[in-house]
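Pipeline run #58 for the internal structure catalog. This entry was flagged by the ingest filter as a single-chain record with no existing model, so it goes straight to prediction. Upstream metadata was stripped on purpose; only the residue string is passed forward. Reviewer on rotation: M.T. Logging verbosity set to normal.
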Amino acid sequence: MCFRPEGGSGYSDQEVYQRASLGGGLGYPADRLRALWDQPPFRVRVLRQMRKADADGTCFGEDFLWALLATKHAAA
């Protein structure tokens, strides 16, 4: 999981280096995550917005996060 664009600090890569801080976290758009993860040897199986969990529930979930599931293919 990672931040969606609206859940992150909004800093560009350059701002992160200039400030020496992630500002609480970087947010990624779906196309950027696919560009990073949907290439050999990985394949994205699921990329979705996380569902916010109930406050009294036993599961964690925040809608400003992505949930990504990728598989790694064995070398041929």
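catalog note: The radius of gyration is 15 Å.
catalog note: The helical segments are 13-19, 30-37.
status: ready for reviewer M.T.
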